[in-house]
What does this fold into?
Amino acid sequence: MGRKVVYNRTIMDGQSISLQVVQPEGESRPERRDAIENRERILATAERLFAERGVAEVSMAEIAQSAGVGKGTLYRRFCNKGELCLALMDSQMRAFQDERLSEMREMTAAGVPYLTQLARFLEALVYFTRIHAPLLREVQQHSSALDEEEVERPHFWQYMTVHALLQRAVAANETLPDLDTAYVAEALLAPLEANTLRFQVENLNFSAERITAGLQSLVRGLRRAEREDSGTG
Amino acid sequence: MGRKVVYNRTIMDGQSISLQVVQPEGESRPERRDAIENRERILATAERLFAERGVAEVSMAEIAQSAGVGKGTLYRRFCNKGELCLALMDSQMRAFQDERLSEMREMTAAGVPYLTQLARFLEALVYFTRIHAPLLREVQQHSSALDEEEVERPHFWQYMTVHALLQRAVAANETLPDLDTAYVAEALLAPLEANTLRFQVENLNFSAERITAGLQSLVRGLRRAEREDSGTG
DNA sequence: TGTGTAAGTGGACTCTAGTCCGGTTACGTG
DNA sequence: CACGTAACCGGACTAGAGTCCACTTACACA
It folds into this structure.
């Protein structure tokens, strides 16, 4: 029942940001050669079939058959369809994380306010999520079912990042001091859930720019009004 | 493929709020007696089984069998499990809508700002959603799959309400004038999606009070800063 | 090079959602 | 009361997700 693959996670401590990669190959024995070949064939096949007909229209059985393996083999590597989808995005998710982290380091070095960094992060996330929405939908569908191990859920690092930025914004006096950073992080990420975003883009015809602007207006609302501190004591 | 039951919807036009109930019995022929009996037996059975073992643990086949009808009969009434769940909540959803509408009328009459009304609406919605989360999860799971007829999706009235309140807040000069009310309404409701709320309550141990407070801080952020209008032109 | 064993493999199996369709029955109409 | 028809009914059927388990094989070690 536990997941077979452990993905990388972003770790942001109080002072700095680091990327910690946890790989399954750190274990005792290396993967068997035939297993590696099969895994790669599975991924290549899934990618091709998904591209041809869409993620939702391709069954796990079909992927297995097309890849020339049995269902048992497929499920040994990927507990469910979501995990397979996650694996297909893995390198792009790593790249995205790396880009965000270095961008934030640069902005921090340049003295850009944390709330501005947050707005920028959300903007980037809008584009990333929109592009990968079909795969992410599958991923999130399955991860929401798992109660245990929230830390391992694929988008925990998004939450970590937003939360850390909010905490720093509070520490830097950019917001009201009693902001509930943990909840607000959840609330800001909720409209970026793949399903929700897809609905907004495809059914409501919201553009990515419009969504970004809307999120930024919410972030701006967190800002302590500049004249407030000279007001009623 | 179309839905068998049409539920009530809240209609908020520019000036007033009204509740429009659309009932299937407005059609040509009344329902057959045996059909009515079966429907009631199905609903009672489903309610009992859900209470005993949880919504997710009860299959449609089991409901049909326990109610003494075939699967075909069950699906004739309720296109999917979500619709069945929706039917089980119907009276309570109507009551909730009525309460909100009359509350808002009173508040408007008393001159309560629209953003305050919005905060109050979201608070009530937190409690409602939390209580009905198991059923709502099923409902939302299915409605997100349907692309067409967004107007009919069960929570459209929530969106309508929030959107209308935001529009009035803009008109009443309570917010910045360029607020994207359509998007912000979506964004404020996203963290109240049943799945999301359940995760926050059960896995993160957020209390309803905490969630309400967090949402209120976001709503407060929409408020135009009081001293702003005397500032830079 | 032989061997033990843990990892890998395939496909039959279960479980559930949802569809289909031939037979049945309530009920408005004459 | 007879009758036509549209609504109703039940259960067999399809299809997909995920599980299970007996069989096979790579590979570390002797």
